[in-house]
């Protein structure tokens, strides 16, 4: 299991300061760069993080027509990032086109499909997708697996079912992690490290419990010790 830290601070300087402070653990960590940070700080910020030795997960959740998604995926692959994501609900044709486009790269990033955002309750999700989360997440995961993606983004509570329905090697990245029972905030389907282990999550994403901590380094050290 790998720890992925969400760089969701309100400024580039705060995010960079956090990354620099954790540099000695760079080989054991992934950093997640999302909409806010990427729109504000761009490719140069990603280069700075890569120069510090980190693996980078670009969390943009691509969702568009197949050709547009494939175009974007190709440009992302040129950024030398290590992993990015797309929305599974864009459909199997789009997922396949993304992977076909990336096949020309000698070294391509890992590609994950978002199944159900962890901010969704089951009721909210069902109103939009017409199915409960557990059923639809598994369906999305099967489509992503068939299309040749490397894994999915899901909550801890769907992880093991998805692996059983696809492959034990199919990656699951699980946001909404509150490592030691911290407040859930705007997330609905949260879990702690113990649950993530039991459900065979490959990546856990932790944001606020780290970057809002008075001593982020100690929190990261504690998490790394727990996930070994």
Structural class: alpha/beta
Helix % is 40-55%
Q: Which strand order do you get reading across the main beta sheet?
A: 1-2-3-4-5-6-7-8
Sequence stretches where pLDDT stays below 50 over 5 or more residues: none
Order of helices and strands: EHEHEHEHEHHEHEHEHH
Average pLDDT confidence is 94
Shape: globular
Q: Please count the beta strands (DSSP E, at least 2 residues each).
A: 8
Task: Give the gist of this structure.
Helices cover 46% and strands 18% of the residues.
Give a structural overview:
- The N and C termini lie close together (7 Å).
- The mean pLDDT is 94.
- Strands 1-2-3-4-5-6-7-8 form an eight-stranded parallel β-barrel, surrounded by five helices.
- It has helices at 12-21, 35-51, 66-77, 92-102, 122-129, 133-146, 156-165, 193-198, 208-211, 216-227; strands at 2-6, 29-34, 55-62, 83-87, 110-114, 151-153, 171-174, 203-206.
- By secondary structure, it is an alpha/beta fold.
- The chain is built from ten helices and eight strands.
- The longest helix has 17 residues, at 35-51.
Key attributes of the depicted protein:
228 residues, alpha/beta, eight-stranded parallel beta barrel, 10 helices, 8 strands, 46% helix, globular
In terms of topology, how is this protein built?
Blueprint: E1 2-6, H1 12-21, E2 29-34, H2 35-51, E3 55-62, H3 66-77, E4 83-87, H4 92-102, E5 110-114, H5 122-129, H6 133-146, E6 151-153, H7 156-165, E7 171-174, H8 193-198, E8 203-206, H9 208-211, H10 216-227
Parallel strand pairs: 1-2, 1-8, 2-3, 3-4, 4-5, 5-6, 6-7, 7-8
């Amino acid at each position: 299991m790998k720890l992925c830290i969400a760089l969701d601070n309100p400024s580039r300087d705060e995010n960079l300061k956090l990354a620099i402070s954790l540099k000695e653990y760079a080989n054991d960590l992934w950093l997640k760069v999302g909409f806010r940070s990427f729109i504000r700080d761009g490719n140069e910020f990603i280069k700075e993080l890569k120069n510090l030795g980190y693996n980078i997960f670009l969390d943009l959740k691509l969702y568009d027509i197949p050709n547009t998604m494939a175009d974007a995926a190709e440009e992302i692959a040129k950024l030398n990032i290590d992993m990015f994501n797309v929305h599974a609900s864009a459909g199997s044709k789009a997922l396949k086109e993304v992977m076909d486009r990336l096949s020309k790269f000698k070294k391509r990033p890992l590609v994950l499909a978002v199944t159900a955002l962890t901010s969704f309750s089951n009721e909210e999700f069902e109103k939009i997708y017409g199915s409960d989360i557990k059923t639809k997440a598994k369906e999305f995961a099967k489509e992503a697996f068939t299309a040749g993606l490397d894994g999915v983004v899901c909550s801890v509570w769907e992880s093991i079912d998805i692996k059983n329905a696809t492959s034990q090697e199919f990656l699951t990245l699980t946001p909404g992690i509150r490592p030691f029972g911290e407040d859930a905030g705007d997330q609905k389907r949260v879990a702690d490290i113990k649950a993530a282990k039991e459900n065979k999550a490959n990546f856990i994403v932790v944001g606020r419990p780290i970057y809002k901590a008075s001593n982020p380094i100690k929190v990261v050290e504690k998490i790394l010790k727990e996930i070994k």
